[in-house]
């Protein structure tokens, strides 16, 4: 059973950057389609970005051009580089392997001055 752990969240000012990482035990992420979701207070969880096993990427319109999902196969992680952050990006960010029904516990990202 795959277990996912997110890291890299925190408090950042508007316009700043953060890099989130998703690590797994029980399965190599290099063999999985992996996605990042987020959930803001009183809102539904939404897909932010996803990367397929062969490297195809897709993004929510609201983060296109600002966020980049990538694999670091040397570290065995799937990362989410977030630039030009806005207060509206404030949420708990979750890593997931949807086909395995696996979710991390989330990492808080707060964008505020």
Describe the structure in your own words:
- It is a single chain.
- The relative contact order is 0.33.
- Helices cover 0% and strands 50% of the residues.
- It is mainly beta and 113 residues long.
- A hairpin with a 5-residue loop joins strand 5 and strand 6.
Strand-residue proportion: over 45%
The percent of residues in helical segments reads under 10%
- Helix-and-strand structural type: mainly beta
Rg is 13 Å
**Strand elements, count:** 11
Distance between the termini: 40 Å
Alpha plus pi helix count: 0
- The helix/strand series, from N terminus to C terminus, equals EEEEEEEEEEE
Mean pLDDT: 95
Taken from the alpha-carbon principal axes, the silhouette is globular
Biggest sheet descriptor: 7 strands, mixed
Q: Pick out the low-confidence regions.
A: none
Topology:
Blueprint lengths: L2 E5 L2 E3 L5 E8 L8 E6 L6 E6 L5 E3 L7 E6 L4 E6 L8 E7 L4 E2 L3 E5 L2
Parallel strand pairs: 2-11
Antiparallel strand pairs: 1-3, 3-8, 4-5, 4-9, 5-6, 7-8, 9-10, 9-11
